[in-house]
Specification:
Blueprint (H helix, E strand, L loop, with lengths): L1 H19 L9 H8 L14 H14 L7 E6 L2 E8 L2 H12 L6 E4 L2 E2 L3 H20 L1 H22 L2 H7 L3 H26 L3 H21 L1 H16 L7 E4 L2 E8 L3 E5 L5 E5 H6 L2 E3 L5 E11 L4 H13 L11 E7 L3 E11 L5 H18 L56 H12 L16
Parallel strand pairs: 2-3, 2-4
Antiparallel strand pairs: 1-2, 5-6, 5-9, 6-7, 7-8, 10-12, 11-12
């Protein structure tokens, strides 16, 4: 209890001057505030205490004598200035000696005149230290062996778990993602084995340095292999999204062909002339994809011109009736005719028709429809436009046919009847789809179904 009251009295005496001071004196100025917050530097005494230099030198020399690397250092002190001389084994020992001397009470400054020992004896001492280190490493060999065995055992467990391919195939939506999961499991177990091994030999700090360096190297490699990483990620996304099926007729940007397979690196097409085309998956993932196979109904169109004096409405209806009379043209959607342009000497008509690609070849249908409509228009008396050139002669120029007095008779034109002529029957094989490329793709896939681990899965929904 007496100690408690003694503490209260001490605190009161400490704050009594501040409480008695004026209020304005309690608020320090800005310089005083900065001075109070800054760490004050030790003041150098104006006089030197008798025998202080000898005590400082003795204290520093006693400390150095306990350190093998600093035992050859000589110390002299004058007016608080410490001078270090002699030799040390390396630069680290030189800095260490200066730091120790500067921490002794009463030292004003340190003059470091130490030099590295490059003599044969010094080198032999370093070899002795190296020998001691090697001896300690040899003693640790059994522990290192046990640590390596533990790391290998943990890694082996990871490889065994990753080897359950059927399990990962069942969990993952496709083989590519299943392989990615297995690789991640192997990587995690290998890293875990390394951590355990380094912990056992007491080198856990080394793991931090290794992982830090690996992180920096990984960032550098990421920038250097940006395209490869982008292609790998695109392959993963395409395997999940399934944008097309095998043997579908697609156009990817400017590349056209039938899909052979989707691999972890590229999409392989067979062009319409039978050549293999490999497109990087990073390009496919960002590309505009046109799929001709997804919807079997496909439209074709073409334009024809008639004379400017003819009736475009009658010609349009006549052309549509001619297309409707063709057996391969679908009634739903029905064919159409449009007036798209009126020129100086012609009227341009556009005709559109739909076909079923499962039954009719698109190119054949278009090539059969154009002459059918053209023949129908001509048979009904519509004139297809011809180039017209207008010639102008000067007043005094003699015309070539003026002397003969003969001129070519004007061509008599029959009026347009608007009647659709009879379309000759055509064989079904004339318009059958061309499936040569499709058969080649099927044959290639059947010959090597596991080639490059095809990522296309007909059982998954298409995006």
């Amino acid at each position: 209890m007496a100690g408690f009251w003694r503490a209260i009295l001490a605190v009161t005496l400490l704050f009594a001057p501040a409480m008695a001071a004026p209020a304005h004196s309690m608020i320090p100025s800005a310089p005083e505030t900065l001075a109070a917050t800054a760490t004050p530097e030790p003041q150098i005494a104006s006089t030197s205490e008798a025998g202080l230099d000898e005590r400082i030198a003795t204290r520093i020399q006693d400390i150095f004598s306990q350190l093998p690397s600093l035992s050859a250092v000589s110390v002299s002190v004058s007016q608080g200035v410490v001078t270090l001389s002699g030799t040390v084994p390396d630069a680290a020992a030189k800095s260490r000696a200066e730091a120790i001397a500067g921490r002794v009470d009463g030292v004003v400054t340190v003059e470091n005149s130490l030099e590295r020992d490059v003599s044969v004896d010094g080198s032999l001492d370093e070899l002795g230290e190296l020998s001691d280190r090697m001896t300690s490493i040899v003693k640790m060999l059994p522990l290192i062996g046990v640590a390596l065995a533990a790391a290998l055992l943990i890694s082996l467990i990871g490889y065994l778990i990753a080897g359950f391919g059927a399990l990962w195939q069942r969990i993952a939506p496709n083989s590519f993602l299943a392989e990615l999961i297995a690789s991640a499991i192997r990587f995690i177990f290998v890293i875990g084995g390394m951590v355990v091994a380094l912990e056992m030999i007491g080198a856990a700090t080394l793991l931090g340095a290794v992982l830090g360096g690996a992180g920096v190297i990984g960032i550098a490699l990421g920038f250097a292999m940006r395209d490869t990483v982008e292609n790998y990620v695109a392959s993963l996304m395409l395997s999940l999204r399934q944008p097309f099926r095998a043997n579908e007729w697609v156009v990817i940007n400017e590349f056209e062909g039938r899909v052979i397979r989707l691999t972890s690196r590229a999409t392989i097409l067979m062009t319409l002339d039978g050549n293999h085309l490999r497109i990087p998956n990073s390009t496919v993932f960002k590309a505009v994809i046109l799929n001709y196979t997804r919807n079997p109904q496909r439209r074709f169109e073409f334009v024809l011109g008639i004379d400017a004096e003819d009736d475009p409405t009658a010609a349009r209806h006549l052309g549509v009736e001619a297309m409707r009379s063709l057996p391969f043209i679908l009634d739903d959607p029905e064919p159409q005719g449009r007036v798209v342009e009126v020129g100086d000497s012609n009227i341009v008509l556009k005709f559109l028709g739909w076909v079923d690609q499962n039954e009719t070849d698109w190119y054949k249908a278009k090539s059969r429809s154009i002459p059918a409509v053209k023949d129908a228009l001509e048979a009904a008396g519509f004139l297809l436009p011809e180039p017209i050139y207008r010639l102008r002669f000067d007043p005094g120029t003699q015309l070539p046919l003026a002397e003969s007095g003969t001129a070519a008779p004007a061509k008599h034109r029959e009026p347009a009847t608007g009647k659709v002529p009879e379309v000759p029957a055509m064989a079904a094989s004339d318009i059958a789809p061309e499936n040569e490329v499709k058969r080649m793709v099927d044959a290639e896939r059947a010959a090597d179904p596991e080639s490059d681990k095809d990522l296309l899965d007909s059982g998954k929904p298409v995006e």
